[in-house]
Design goal:
The chain is of the alpha/beta class. The protein is built from nine helices and nine strands.
């Protein structure tokens, strides 16, 4: 039996609320368009795509949806990834026909969330593996068995992987970092995804400082700071807020 992978979410209520807002948008895409598989890629390296993918996957599972998070970065070895330290087989092993897909799926400490690591097979180039028929099978099979499929891949300026996978999923979400992602890189990333035929549905801006966040969400701490309305009896016997 595979080891259980421990995934941890941020404990900050405000940050979790921001992710929940993104979850709502993803959920609406499913309800309106039937989208189930989502590719997350950074406009450039270091914007926090993996942490964003983990948080979104956890939030979706907490909301009651059967979710699977897939590490689609086949370039960086498992030993360099904290989540993959204790795994035996993963995505690349299935693609290279060295394992069954069921052997590559790991349970997590979240009841409705599963995880597929990048894998250990390195005989083929990442490009050939991602372009393979077996990669198509992975996406199709996961869509059949899960409510949401979240795939994390390298940034667009570091590899062509996102351009390959963007046409295999229902929708793609671009991740950027506040005050560090250059507008030129963002626009170039958008062009690459669109030209590849991807369905780019939005951008997640990561690493936004609190003062800037307040400008977007003015009542970001409404429920934390709000004094609960005292209840008093009205003349007609019904409760009313003060």
């Amino acid at each position: 039996m595979n080891n259980v992978i421990n995934l941890y979410r941020c404990k900050d209520e405000i940050i979790n609320d921001a992710y929940d807002r993104a979850v709502v948008n993803i959920y609406l895409q499913k309800e309106k368009n039937g989208y189930k598989s989502f590719l997350l890629c950074g406009s450039e390296a270091g914007v926090g795509t993996t942490s964003t993918s983990v948080e979104l996957a956890i939030s979706l599972s907490v909301a009651g949806w059967k979710t699977i998070l897939v590490d689609g970065d086949l370039r960086k070895g498992s030993r360099y990834k904290r989540l993959n330290e204790d795994v035996k087989q993963g995505l690349s092993d299935y693609i290279c026909s060295d394992a069954q897909l069921s052997d590559c799926i790991y349970s997590t400490n979240w009841d409705l969330l599963h995880y597929i690591p990048c894998g250990t097979a390195k005989d083929e180039s990442p490009v050939r593996m991602l372009c393979s028929a077996n990669m198509d099978k992975v996406v199709r099979q996961l869509q059949e068995h899960y409510d949401f499929v979240i795939i994390d891949v390298p940034s667009l300026n570091s590899a062509v992987d996102a351009q390959i996978l963007t046409v295999k999923v229902d929708a793609t979400i671009l991740v950027t970092a506040f005050n560090s992602s250059k507008r030129r890189c963002l626009e170039e990333a958008r062009k690459q995804l669109v030209q590849a035929g991807g369905n780019l549905i939005g951008v997640v801006e990561n690493k936004v400082d609190m003062e800037e966040y307040k400008k977007y969400i003015k009542d970001y701490d409404y429920f934390k700071q709000k004094k609960f309305a005292k209840m008093s009896k009205g003349g007609n016997g019904e409760s009313e807020e003060e």
